[in-house]
Amino acid sequence: MGLGKRLVDECVRFARRKGYKKLVLWTNHVLVQARNIYQKAGFVLVKQEPHRSFGPELIGETWELSL
Predict the structure, then answer these.
(1) Is it the case that residue 38 has pLDDT exceeding 90?
(2) β-strand pairing of 44-51 with 58-66
(3) How many whole angstroms separate alpha carbon 4 and alpha carbon 35?
(4) pLDDT in the model for residue 55
(5) pTM, 2 dp
(6) How far is it, in rounded angstroms, from Cα 16 to Cα 14?
């Protein structure tokens, strides 16, 4: 349906209109479709850290987009 892409695109548009310099988001490595949306929107993976915040061991990822 494209809702994830539309949501990310709207967040980026809002941030640009408001004069933000950078967007930062955090996700997990297993959320492949979300990560693809972020990458296609121009976000860059800047950090990875293992964690157990939700039970199983995951790799948390920090993504940034310079505006």
Answers:
(1) yes
(2) antiparallel
(3) 11
(4) 86
(5) 0.89
(6) 5
